[in-house]
Amino acid sequence: MDIIDTHCHVVSADLARYPRAPLGGKQSGWATTRPVTADEMA
Q: Among 6, 29, 30, 31, which one has the highest count of C-beta atoms within 10 angstroms of its own C-beta?
């Protein structure tokens, strides 16, 4: 049986509460343009 791992990496739109600190010090262009709220994620 194959096992497939799926998960999300949430990028919050609230930078004051959840400041971004990406590994390696640089956030990807994709993540920079796609922040979401909790309602949008659900």
A: 31
